[in-house]
Amino acid sequence: MKKTALLMIIGVGVLGACNNPEGGVENDTMTEATADSAVVYDDEQGRLEADAVEIIDVGEDFWANIDWDAPVTEDPELASADVEMRASNEYNIYTMDDRVLFDTDKAQIRAEGEQKLQQLADKIKDLPQNAPIRIFGHADARASNEYNEELSRERANAVKDWLQSQGGIQADRLSIEAMGESAPRATNETARGRQLNRRVAIVAVTREQ
Length: 209
Prior knowledge:
Elements lengths: L1 H18 L4 H28 L8 H5 L11 H5 L2 E5 L3 E7 H4 L9 H14 L8 E6 L6 H21 L8 E7 L10 H7 L1 E7 L4
Parallel strand pairs: 3-4
Antiparallel strand pairs: 1-2, 2-5, 3-5
């Protein structure tokens, strides 16, 4: 009887040690789990920091001094997409006629325009990934200043939204500017001149810092 009672007491003691949160086995397991979690967190944090890209801040003076008459650069792929490319030593200018992208007085991108924008987006992806891009909307002078500015803003925004959502361009690289009729390429006295003035110009910085 005494022997049986003694064995029961020893058994209870062993079970208590196994279930004790302060026991050696459980402590080791919890320590290892915590250490493993810390490694996973550090790895994830490191990946996020590595993926983060700080976009160059070129300042508003940079955008205000774009040379719209920079030399034309021949690019057969862009030419097939009805995109005119001009380049300086700091940026590229990609210009698209409004008829390529929009119906008259509209700001919704046409299906054909989406295909051409994709070709342009693929080119832009070859540029430095920390370089900013600004989309300039331009209009002719047939309507009021207010109407032209608003239409050019809506069209620039439409291109910006498309490049971000469909073209795979990082959102914080993109900004817009509504030029309205303030920067014509040609006279507004002729149909040909007005057509040249209705356009969207995408200026992509090409330097990395």
